[in-house]
Write a structure and sequence with these properties.
Chain A: Keywords: Cell membrane, GTP-binding, Ion transport, Iron, Iron transport, Magnesium, Membrane, Metal-binding, Nucleotide-binding, Transmembrane, Transmembrane helix, Transport. Chain A is of the alpha/beta class. Chain A has 30 helices and eleven strands. Chain A starts with a strand and ends with a helix. The chains are: A alpha/beta, B mainly alpha.
Chain lengths: ~700, ~50
């Protein structure tokens, strides 16, 4: 049996750590969460020389082992806990060739934990362009380790890295800085109290409030022979440690690195000047957004139509191939149309993630964050709020968790409360289908009305988040003090592999995450639509036949009349009619009402719900779009999905708080039900009023 | 026979769907996974 070793990939943010992870593992990776917390855990397998297998963990990016966030805590807790099944046999610290000095701080800290550590110097292909020269043998000697020069872009150095990992036993575990150099008196007494423990680990336990082995901070404080210092003194010692480390790093780089600025050819400054310009910056960002939305519509049309037809075919085939009965009906009229309602949006969602990933990979997204900070400040938000607000376009849940790095509680709370206004990917299916039904296909200055409407909805969501933040800043009486630091990574040509993996992972997470809920809700809805109480439902065929005896119905028309009558008297029909008075002023019928109620679990359920309800009620095999387009307003006549009701629905979905998982995460992050309940009632109440006003004005 | 089997399948699917949603939205407690070697439970590693 071949041996498997644990490898931890560690590094500062933006050093290309994930690219190295992708290069080592390819598609042999899985994403999960660390136990008990919601920090993403990426792990994968890699084959090394001599038949050795490596289990690789891509740890969250961190600047040092002085943890200040949950993500950073994950790194330090793993490195301090030898009993952890993921404890690394070897640590691979990924650094960026242009930021070696800063990146080496983390390297020296990890090396001092006496874990075999390899230094990866990534983006080595940029060395010549930046006028950087490295004396690798000398650096290896000074740092007492092995160095792998890697360029993930050019696929260089990965085999060498694999070889170094396989030979990890040859690596020295000598520390870079002896802990006693920080403060000899203090560390001597620490060593006396805990003779069998590694001093630097003890130091981290004392200063970071984390545990390792069976030793924790409280235990250390109860040892009589050892007097720990006050918090202020510990801080001073930490600063001293950092200064000592940088002295060591400076000395090392002085010998092993030369930077010739005269030979550096840098486009970065020129590009930054334009892309973060107070006028051009916003204009360019606007043009990029327009292009993205136009492309989402133009490119996704063909695959969407194909998927739509495929599900119609599947539904028909199920009916013809399986013996008739209730389970066949459940499959053909419940599950397949319900799932079709979500699968159809895969192309558009994949394109959206493709563009977001390209913007992130190229380094442009950090410039957007910088640009937006100027606006954020005016609305009482932190520059750091931009990240949750932008990542909220994918999903509000990770976005709300991303607020953890906002130091000011007031700014963090405001960001949590307003993030659900940004247009998440779950709203996308609702927007796309309604826009296609009610907005004409014409163009304005080469741009389609439909993509423009979609972009407008994104802007409305973002603007509402800002205005709400401004109001909350004035309403909430909490003191605040904050600052904003953002790292501007270099511009890079996006790596195809990284982009592809991001698109696949994100789309998969959306489809499978939403798919299970939609499948469950489709089954329940089909049941509620296919069964009903009393004689009206059970004797529907006789009642309709008797009522229509005077009318000259064909057998097909009669069958549809019976199906429609049964649906109206089914459980779902009864529930729908009960809520109809509340939604009729908004231009909706009871079927839309049911879809809205069920989508309070998750927004994306809306389309699947309508697909299921219409499928049960309809005898024809039609696509979801044609079924919805064919629905008639029972009171006013004409299409149910017209301009007024469509705009009303779009605005309702733009503002309503319809995501049980988001409410749960807000409760978890704020530790009270007060804020999620306020979100639910205020956002949904606001959505109702806006949708009502829109419909009444447009009708 | 066919009708009975189809009914059993439908009601089983319905029961599973209801159970799944109740669990998903926290109305029913989720079953805890067996603790792994470390960090999955109190195994004396000191990190809990």
């Amino acid at each position: 049996m071949s041996k498997q070793i644990n490898v931890a990939l560690i590094g500062n943010p933006n050093t290309g750590k994930t690219s190295v992870f992708n290069a080592l593992t390819g598609l042999n990776q899985k994403v999960g969460n660390y136990p008990g917390i919601t920090v993403e855990k990426k792990q994968g397998l890699c084959k090394l020389p001599r038949g050795v297998k490596a289990h690789i963990i891509d740890l969250p990016g961190t600047y040092s082992l002085n943890a200040s966030s949950l993500d950073e805590n994950v790194v330090i807790e793993l490195l301090l806990n030898k009993n952890d099944k993921d404890f690394p046999d070897v640590a691979v610290v990924v650094s960026d060739v242009e930021n070696l000095k800063r990146n080496l701080l983390l390297f020296t800290q990890i090396k001092d934990l006496e874990i075999p550590t390899i230094l990866v110097i990534n983006m080595s292909d940029r060395m010549r362009k930046k006028g950087i020269l490295l004396d690798i043998p000398l650096l290896e000697k000074e740092l007492n380790t092995k160095i792998a020069l890697v360029s993930t872009r050019k696929r260089e150095g990965i085999d060498n890295l694999k070889q170094l990992i396989a030979d990890y036993r040859k690596l020295s575990t000598e520390p870079c800085l002896k802990a006693s150099e920080i403060d000899s008196v203090y560390f001597d007494s620490l060593k006396e109290a805990f003779p069998n423990q590694l001093l630097y680990k003890l130091w981290l336990v004392i200063t970071q409030d984390v545990n390792f082995g069976k030793t924790d901070r409280n235990e250390i404080e109860t040892i009589n022979s050892f007097k720990t210092k006050s918090k202020a003194d510990l801080k001073r010692l930490q600063q001293k440690e950092t200064i000592k480390r940088y002295q060591f790093i400076n000395n090392t780089l002085k010998k092993g690195q030369t930077v010739d600025l005269a030979s550096a050819t840098d486009l970065r400054i020129k590009l930054d000047r334009i892309l973060t310009h107070k006028v051009w910056g916003y204009l360019i960002f606007g043009v990029i957004l327009l292009t993205i939305f136009q492309a989402i519509y133009d490119w996704a049309q063909v695959p969407m139509d194909l998927i739509d037809r495929l599900f119609v075919f599947l539904s028909e085939w199920t009916k013809s191939a399986l013996p008739s009965g209730v389970f066949t009906s459940l499959l053909a009229e419940g599950i397949i149309p319900g799932l079709g309602g979500i699968v159809i949006f895969i192309p558009q969602i994949a394109f959206l993630f493709l563009f977001i990933s390209l913007l992130e990979e190229s380094g442009y997204m950090s410039r957007v964050v910088f640009l937006m900070d100027r606006i954020m400040r005016r609305f009482g938000l932190s520059g750091k709020s931009v990240v949750p607000l932008i990542s909220g376009t994918a999903c509000a849940i990770p976005a709300i968790m991303a607020t953890r790095n906002i130091e000011s509680w007031k700014e963090r709370l405001i960001t949590i409360l307003v993030t659900p206004f940004t247009t998440c990917s779950a709203r996308l299916p609702v927007y796309l289908i309604i826009i296609e039904l009610v907005i004409p296909e014409g163009r304005f200055l080469g741009l389609g009305y439909q993509p423009l409407t979609l972009m407008l909805l994104y802007i409305i969501g973002f603007a509402t988040a800002l205005v709400s933040a401004w109001m909350l800043d004035r309403i909430l009486k909490i003191k605040k003090k904050t600052f904003f630091v953002v790292e501007m990574p270099n511009y890079k040509l996006p790596l195809f592999k990284n982009v592809a993996i991001t698109v696949i992972e994100k789309t998969k997470a959306f489809v499978f995450g939403a798919g299970k809920i939609i499948l469950a809700i489709s089954i329940i809805l089909w049941f509620l639509a296919s069964y009903g109480p009393g004689d009206d439902f059970n004797n529907a065929a006789e009642i309709v036949s008797a009522q229509s005896s005077s009318k000259d119905f064909s057998s097909e028309e009669l069958r549809e009349e019976i199906a429609s009558y049964k649906l109206e008297h089914s459980y779902i029909g009864i529930a729908g009619h009960a809520i109809e008075p509340a939604i009729r002023p908004l231009g909706y019928d009871w079927k839309i009402g049911i879809a809205i109620v069920s989508s309070f679990a998750a927004r994306e359920v809306f389309v699947g719900t309508l697909a299921t309800i219409y499928s049960v009620g309809s005898g024809d095999q039609e696509t979801i779009k044609s079924r919805m387009a064919g629905e008639v307003n029972p009171i006013l006549g004409g299409p149910l999905f017209n301009f007024a009701s469509g705009i009303s629905l779009l605005l309702f979905y733009a503002f309503a708080m319809q995501c049980a998982s988001t409410l749960a995460i807000v409760k978890k992050e704020t530790n009270t039900w007060k804020w999620p309940m306020l979100q639910l009632f205020i956002m949904s109440g606001f959505a109702y009023v806006v949708a009502l006003v829109a419909y009444q004005l447009l009708i | 026979m066919n009708t009975i089997i189809q009914n059993i399948l439908v009601f089983s699917a319905l029961a599973y769907a209801i159970w799944y949603l109740l669990r998903k939205f926290g109305i029913l407690p989720k079953r805890k996974k067996a603790s792994s070697k470390a960090c999955g439970g109190d195994d004396g590693c000191g990190c809990h």
